[in-house]
């Protein structure tokens, strides 16, 4: 892992980040990055990637602050008489609040679940007549949940560190996080998740996953991947746009080299600058792609997009037809 990428991640961690009830520093990313083999796993943290993802997400104030069915009592509106200067100041505060609400969940690889064996004491084998495990938890403050000392004594006398599931349950038992369940909700089981996806309650699923799972857990990755793929299959991009999940969703498509459907939607909705930003992101993640040598010039989006279609698109005829339609409309408008 290069020092530059490590600095990017550390800088990101120390920024004001509120996506998750637990502090992002609890991910121990600094230690993991030192041992990382694939720098691409942490490309989400690069400043240029962050800039593009935020640009693609957009900021629709009405959508960010829309009323959602979360089971909470909405606050009544407050009316004030203000000067123009006061209104401007309140608008600036509102924009900052909106940006905070749009802070993206981090995209990190799945971490291994290999509890370290501390010692083996055969003399303690069979110490419990029911062959039960004993879990010992350090409940002192201010240890964070991931660094907290939690060990397990096995029936055969082995003393080891707790695995992810045991750690999750002990932390939730002693230090409950609001909205998080002791055991994973049934809604995340494939057969139960399917109807929620069909209702297109994507933001609800992703918000719930952020609360219930750690971002480096296999359960989190499986849930968001299934959700992202369903969004792409149904072309439901607008549902997620201007939410904190749109950036990670876009990065998911880019990593899989499956951006063509989203590009076509950009063409249809007159988002050529977004299409160019999406291809720029593609070039950063896949510097070996054929169109990566093409430089983007603002105002010349068509040429930049054309280079991607000619060299890297998986659906060339599909995208070419969509781009041709855009050019035809532009000719009519300019004529």
Could you provide a short overview of the structure?
This protein has 335 residues and is mainly alpha-helical.
Provide structural commentary.
- One of its GO terms (cellular component) is mitochondrial small ribosomal subunit.
- InterPro entries: Ribosomal_mS22.
- By secondary structure, the protein is mainly alpha-helical.
- 49% of the residues lie in helices and 5% in strands.
- The chain has 15 helices and four strands.
- The chain has helices at 3-13, 29-34, 47-57, 61-64, 84-101, 164-174, 190-198, 202-212, 218-234, 237-240, 246-255, 260-268, 272-285, 301-311, 316-334; strands at residues 117-120, 134-137, 150-153, 158-161.
- A four-stranded antiparallel β-sheet has the order 1-4-3-2, covered by helices on one side.
Terminus-to-terminus distance: 53 Å
Structural class: mainly alpha
Order of helices and strands: HHHHHEEEEHHHHHHHHHH
The level of helicity is 40-55%
Low-pLDDT parts are: 13-26, 33-37
Largest sheet: 4 strands, antiparallel
What is the arithmetic mean of pLDDT?
A: 88
Rg of Cα set:
24 Å
Q: Got a strand count?
A: 4
Shape estimate: globular
Strand order of the largest sheet: 1-4-3-2
State which percent range the strand residues make up. under 5%
Number of helices: 15
């Amino acid at each position: 892992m290069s020092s530059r990428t490590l600095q990017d991640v550390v800088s990101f961690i120390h920024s004001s980040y509120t996506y998750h009830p637990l502090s992002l520093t609890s991910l121990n990313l600094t230690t993991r990055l030192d041992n990382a083999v694939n720098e691409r796993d942490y490309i989400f943290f690069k400043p240029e990637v962050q800039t593009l993802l935020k640009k693609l997400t957009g900021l629709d104030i009405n959508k960010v602050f829309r009323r959602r069915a979360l089971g909470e009592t909405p606050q009544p509106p407050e009316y004030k008489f203000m000067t123009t200067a006061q209104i401007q100041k309140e608008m600036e505060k509102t924009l900052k609040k909106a940006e905070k609400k749009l802070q993206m969940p981090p995209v990190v690889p799945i971490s291994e679940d290999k509890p370290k064996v501390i010692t083996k004491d055969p003399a303690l084998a069979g110490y419990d007549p029911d062959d039960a495990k004993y879990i010992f938890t350090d409940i002192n403050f201010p240890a964070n949940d991931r660094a907290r000392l939690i060990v397990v004594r096995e029936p055969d006398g082995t003393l080891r560190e707790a695995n992810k599931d045991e750690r999750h349950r002990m932390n939730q038992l002693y230090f409950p996080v609001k909205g998080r369940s002791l055991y994973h909700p049934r809604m995340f089981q494939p057969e139960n998740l399917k109807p929620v996806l069909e209702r297109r309650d994507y933001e609800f699923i992703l918000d719930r996953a952020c609360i219930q799972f750690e971002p480096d857990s296999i359960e989190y990755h499986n849930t968001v991947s299934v959700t992202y793929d369903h969004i792409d299959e149904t072309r439901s991009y607008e549902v997620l746009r201007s939410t904190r999940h749109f950036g990670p969703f876009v990065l998911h498509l880019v990593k899989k080299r499956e951006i063509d459907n989203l590009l076509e939607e950009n063409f249809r909705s007159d988002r050529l600058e977004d299409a160019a930003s999406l291809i720029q992101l593609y070039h950063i993640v896949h510097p070996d792609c054929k169109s990566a040598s093409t430089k983007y010039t603002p105002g010349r989006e068509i040429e930049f997009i054309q280079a991607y279609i000619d060299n890297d698109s998986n659906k060339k005829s599909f995208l070419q037809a969509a781009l041709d339609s855009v050019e035809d409309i532009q000719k009519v408008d300019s004529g």
